[in-house]
Amino acid sequence: MMRALPSPALAFGAISVGGPGDRLPVTRGDRLAWVNRPDGLLEAVRSMDLPDAPGVAYLAGEARTCQAVRGHLVSERGWSRRDVVVKPFWAPGRRGMD
Fold it and tell me: What is the residue extent of each domain of the chain?
């Protein structure tokens, strides 16, 4: 997704990995936070110095984490819900999402 952005566009992100050896190479100089535990994703997004004008957020991962980050962007940062795209890949105890 980052490669598809035009060069003047900035990308901000928080990516959860199992450990430092699981980080993927990033070719753009964007602002990414690497978090070694999924529990830290919301705090990583909260601590980001995002531009004043909201853009579009793409959230993918565990359903509750996506909901928490969306809640932060909408309630605490004033983003519109339509500017936050959520794709939950799994949810504990949910059939078909485990």
Answer: 57-98
